[in-house]
């Protein structure tokens, strides 16, 4: 719903619109989705109110409601998801303090829901919030987001994902950031061959387009580099890794690429090393959590594990990292915060462009996304990142970094290779989701 002169800050609107706006609560958008035009000529429909946000900085501004669906209590990524979500709250508070988006501020607190990393739950809470939000500030997980993707496309609901599957490059409603799992794995293999001389690779991964996408990248890179390759799927749960550990011990690869939750990764690394495995491990970005250095697997992780990442860690000296640390204040550093902050920039860019275009409807936000040629990540990603208009291949961000565990580092990891696109990722043509090639 659009804005009017209820706050006294704009020209008087017709009585019918005023009455309609008064029927909307301050906490939710009008459910009908009818298009209105606000006092400044911007069209709005779902998830936008004339009334200020519940925690407004400027009560003369209207409110854009964005939903957050995350893994907040019992799923495998909760240790990352909670800081991801807290960082997004801080990001949008900073936006609002700086003046908001046009005549609006942004609320990401009213519609926060827990998906428990369960696709059915994810869809259920999405359907509950859908009549009340313009877009999603966060949809966590590749398999969970897949459960709502068709509806998002049918309803023009744009979302910032908390995931990196290569499938998102082919979905206009997803504003992805950073290198996808497939390209990240390619960079991992280029690095491992150069740094460790590996000749054989085993990908241990969860099923679905999180684990499968990373494993596909490893497979494609191994083929390109002439390395031996095998893959084994595993289930979530530290007590469910016996098959994966046995595959490592029997195959004795030089390198194991891990794509799973942190607790699963710690179980595999710790137990495989305890049983005599002397090869290397590289974890795809979501496998790491600094709490692993307090686990029984810590000695093995320090000796044999490295971590890839689509952007630089918490302590990096860029304007974006500095703003993140300042906004969050005294917190225990965690790169979940870093991820949540980075993922918010494209949504800000899309909303800003939609307002500039005079169309803050769902369709208008989607059109704005399609027209973006770059996003200002304040130095957290390379210049030119966020080029959604260029298409899947030309717009793909291909750089990733490599870190090693370090107890003295703020988030438990120290960089060993800066953001780099290896030759395999540079040469690869992203013509369809990588997991389709596994």
Report on this model:
There is one protein chain. The radius of gyration is 22 Å and the shape is globular. The model is unreliable at 1-32 (pLDDT under 50). Helices cover 37% and strands 17% of the residues. It has helices at 15-22, 78-97, 119-129, 142-155, 181-196, 211-225, 242-251, 262-274, 298-304, 319-328, 335-356, 362-371, 423-427, and strands at 36-37, 43-44, 48-49, 62-70, 104-107, 112-114, 135-140, 159-162, 200-206, 228-234, 255-259, 280-283, 305-309, 359-360, 400-405, 413-420. The protein is α/β, with parallel strands linked by helices and 438 residues long.
What order do the strands of the largest sheet run in, or round the barrel if closed? 10-9-11-12-13-15-16
Shape summary: globular
> Largest beta sheet, briefly?
7 strands, mixed
Q: Radius of gyration from the CA trace?
A: 22 Å
Number of strands: 16
End-to-end C-alpha gap = 45 Å
H-E string? HEEEEHEEHEHEHEHEHEHEHEHHEHEEH
Portion in strands: 15-25%
